[in-house]
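Write out a sequence, fold above all:
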Amino acid sequence: MNPITIEITINAPIEKVWEYWTKPEYITKWAFASDDWEAPRATNDVRTGGTFTTRMQAKDGSAGFDFGGTYTNVIEHSVIEYDMDDGRHVKAEFMEVPEGVRIVQSFDPEQENPEEMQRAGWQAILDNFKKYVESH
């Protein structure tokens, strides 16, 4: 299957976008797709070979999972690539544009859910990131 690509433009400087994307104290504020979910904890060692884990769960406790992986390529303010724990690859590119920072993210789809559902879920998290960065 081909990777799925999503993107968003954040109206903020690259330094702020990078910090909010990579620091655990910010990740817990935006790394979920809807208001009835949360990310109560996150760890992040942002360097090639480093690892990360973010706990994503429904606020009512009905569902949840750990989202984690190992970084395969990190170039500050430019690129973050990683392999998820299930082996799928993800790449996020950060580009300065007149409106702020454009993030283009591609990820290998999983086999269990329709591609459009996966695209919508990942896009919702990006939308949440934009909302959080631009409001803080």
User: Anything to note?
Assistant: The chain has one domain: 4-135. Strands lie at 4-10, 37-44, 51-58, 64-75, 79-84, 89-97, 100-107.
